[in-house]
Specification:
The complex is a heterodimer of chains A (361) and B (230). Chain A is an alpha+beta fold. Helices cover 60% and strands 11% of the residues of chain A. In chain A, a hairpin with a 2-residue loop joins strand 4 (285-292) and strand 5 (295-302). The chains are: A alpha+beta (361), B alpha/beta (230).
């Protein structure tokens, strides 16, 4: 921000009027620049900065005409160099490096005009002042640029956070809606009353989930009791009595899951069986549960048409509802399929050390 | 050459339609009861047997279920159960009684026909629920005679993996694996037949006596008749 030199009564060699004019010009410019900067809440634009530089140069250049002999250095009367310094600092907010450099060079050049023949006796002071111009241009500019980078990074981080929040919301929506959409699609297809009745049961389950999502409430699973996995798997399989499902769960008797993980497994299993119903054309579906020393494994395999994972991208159901959500809940998921040879999805609990190693990667 | 088949089913529709719907089978006899078949004694590669053959109250002397399987296998017939029965312990009991296969009537005709052809050719068709029971019995050391390779095969098949998938996991050809599976199922079937209901109940965590209703534990010729009188 520009600031004129102090106003004090001085003895001026026959040029009081021009001196005052110069002083007023500097004072008005300093006030205007300050007000504009405060109102706009940003530094001067290139045009304003150029005008400011121009005025500083002009005042330096005409100073010998309005100052008395010996007043240019070491006095309070010669405000021009201090004013020029304030302009140089104010211009540190200008984005254009070229403008800043040209302005600085102009000020330095005019400063030498300002010194005139006084330079000889005060060379060290003059050089020190020139260095001050340069340093006071560079340091504030570095600081301003650094602040700008921080602000830019903050903006980028905020935008990224917003984007991640949007994607997370989209994922949650996909998660909540996917199975419901699949059920609705199946409901639109022709079928017997019995088949439709089964689908309506499924639709009611999905409807409850979607309502909970639309109300904006995450199901509170922190204090919910653990779920018995065999009962949960059987419950889901019972919703698909139209499918040839063989549920072999004897080896998993006694497996209990935290409520959040159980909900993810339930939703994933339902999604897998909906996929079988909609796409697989399977004659046999096996749901197998096993508990070993390293944890439990749930295998869902069908002998349907399968697909080639290398050439066909998996849909939202497999990607989000099965793989994404189960991995978020600490489960491991493997999908194996081949055209004409069915699909096998293996869901397993990941032991804590293995999970820690995976998360570290 | 088509395998010769005898169909034992109390539903005339089934008796008449098997030959028509499964053209790769040569149905040489179609009767309503096991007793009829045993009287006629046809020479066939396979007997397709329904488990529920008559109303017990009306025809108490007609063999049903396990008794029917045992009566036929003891006379040297190769039996494939063809039924709507889905209770897994009943299916396992059929295998323990000597049936070489169990085929569901709910299967598409072409697939059922293929299963009959497999059994007629000397193979076995073990329904998935029975594979699951066998796996539990092996894991809980009720059946202990399996090699590590056989355990791996059973592990894969119990999870519903296809022959191709299991063969890939074990680095063998699919035909080799089918041979292994045949040997394995025969071995498991023998082991299953040797187990008592109590041993199976214990291994599966069932209550004592839960299996007595299904299992072929009696050794007399008329055990089935005694049960129907109860």
């Amino acid at each position: 921000m520009a600031a004129p030199g102090p106003l004090c009564p001085v003895k001026v060699r026959g040029a009081t009027g021009p001196y005052l004019a110069c002083w007023l010009a500097a004072a008005v410019a300093a006030v205007v620049v300050s007000v504009v900067t405060v109102v706009r809440r940003r530094p001067l634009g290139p045009l304003g900065a150029a005008a400011d530089f121009g005025l500083a140069c002009l005042l330096l250049a005409v100073a010998p005409l309005v100052l008395a002999e010996g007043e240019r250095l070491g006095t309070w009367v010669a405000f021009q160099s201090a004013y020029a310094l304030s302009v140089v600092m104010t211009a540190s907010g200008v984005r254009s490096l070229a403008l800043a450099v040209v302005g600085l060079l102009g000020v330095i050049g005019c400063y030498f005009l300002f010194l005139g023949e006084d330079f000889d006796g005060h060379a060290s002071t003059a050089v020190g002042n020139v260095i001050t111009f340069i340093v006071y241009t560079a340091i504030p500019r570095l600081f301003v640029n650094y602040t700008r980078r921080v602000a830019r990074d903050a903006d980028a981080s905020r935008a990224r956070a917003a984007e991640l929040a949007r994607r997370e919301e989209e994922r949650r929506a996909q998660l909540m809606m996917h199975n419901g959409v699949a059920v609705m699609r199946l409901l639109t297809e022709p079928g017997t009353d019995e088949e439709r009745a089964r689908l309506i049961d499924l639709a009611e389950v999905e409807l409850r989930r979607m309502r909970s999502y639309l109300r904006g409430r995450e199901p509170d699973t922190a204090d919910a009791p653990e779920a018995v996995l065999t009962a949960l798997v059987r419950q889901v399989c019972d919703r698909f009595t139209d499918l040839p499902v063989d549920a072999l769960l004897d080896l998993g008797v006694g497996v209990r899951l935290p409520a959040a993980q159980a909900e993810a497994v339930e939703r994933a299993l339902e999604s897998l069986l909906l996929n079988v119903r909609a796409h697989a054309r399977a004659e046999q579906v096996v749901v197998h549960l096993d508990q070993g020393p390293d944890g439990w494994t749930l295998t869902v395999s069908d002998d349907g048409v399968g697909f080639d994972p290398a050439t066909r991208a998996v849909g939202v159901g497999l990607r989000e509802v099965v793989v994404g959500e189960l991995r978020r809940q600490g489960c491991d998921v493997e999908i194996e399929s081949a055209v004409g040879d069915g699909t096998t999805v293996t869901i397993s609990s990941v032991p804590a050390p293995a999970r820690a190693a995976r998360e570290a990667r | 050459m088509k395998p010769t088949v005898a169909v034992v089913d109390d539903a005339s529709l089934i008796r008449d339609s098997v030959g028509l719907l499964m053209p790769k089978l040569d149905v040489v006899a179609a009767v309503a009861t096991v007793e009829d078949l045993l009287r006629r004694r046809p020479v066939v590669d396979l007997v397709a047997l329904d488990l529920h053959l008559a109303n017990i109250d009306v025809q108490p002397d007609v063999r049903q279920g396990i008794a029917a399987v045992r009566a036929l296998t003891r006379r040297g017939y190769r039996v494939c159960v063809y039924s709507q029965e889905e209770r897994r312990f009943v299916l396992a009991a059929c295998m323990a009684a000597g049936a070489s296969g169990v085929v569901s009537k709910a299967l598409p005709t072409a697939r059922a026909e293929q299963h009959f052809l497999d059994v007629a050719a000397g193979g076995t068709v073990v329904p998935q629920p029975v594979v699951g029971i066998l796996e539990v019995l092996v894991r809980r050391n009720c059946i202990t005679l399996l090699s590590e390779r056989q355990r791996q095969i059973l592990h894969g098949r119990a999870r519903g993996l296809s022959y191709a998938q299991v063969a890939k996991q074990l680095y063998v050809s699919e035909s080799t694996l089918r041979g292994y599976w045949l040997d394995l199922t025969r071995s498991l079937q023998d082991s299953l037949a040797d187990l008592t209901p109590a041993e199976i109940e214990h291994a599966l965590g069932l209550a004592p006596g839960d299996l007595l209703e299904f299992w072929p534990g009696e050794d007399s010729e008329d055990w089935w008749r005694v049960r129907t009188d109860r």
